[in-house]
Amino acid sequence: MKYKEFGKEYIDQIIEIYKENSWYAYLDDLTILEKSIDNSLYILGAFENDKLIGFIRCVGDGYHVVYIQDLIIRPGYYRRSIGKNLYQKTSCKFKYVRQFLLITDANDKVSNNFYRKMGMIEGNTEYPVRTYIRQ
């Protein structure tokens, strides 16, 4: 598996991955999706040859705050440490950023367990989402 930064040149494969994971909200307006990719702070992909297997996408200023917008893997590639590697490489790149965070669904046990294993701590909230902040 090769890890590299990329942009909208892989938009077709990004769309495939969102579809494969039923993340349809991103697909309502492909012009907006393309702009969101263009305006991202950082996108790191996991590639097998030239096939995008998964990626992490961050927004923020890169100095005070980095927000993980997406961490998504093709379903056939789960449990191969790809998500872990994407997270760790990104966390290392932004290790001096004070606010390194994300929001995930409160009822998604897999995601919640994953972020805890990555060393993130849960923020307190009464909403049906979970916020995690790097320790």
UniProtKB/TrEMBL annotation:
<keyword id="KW-0808">Transferase</keyword>
<dbReference type="Pfam" id="PF00583">
    <property type="entry name" value="Acetyltransf_1"/>
</dbReference>
<dbReference type="InterPro" id="IPR016181">
    <property type="entry name" value="Acyl_CoA_acyltransferase"/>
</dbReference>
<protein>
    <submittedName>
        <fullName>GNAT family N-acetyltransferase</fullName>
    </submittedName>
</protein>
<dbReference type="GO" id="GO:0016747">
    <property type="term" value="F:acyltransferase activity, transferring groups other than amino-acyl groups"/>
</dbReference>
<dbReference type="InterPro" id="IPR000182">
    <property type="entry name" value="GNAT_dom"/>
</dbReference>
<feature type="domain" description="N-acetyltransferase">
    <location>
        <begin position="1"/>
        <end position="135"/>
    </location>
</feature>
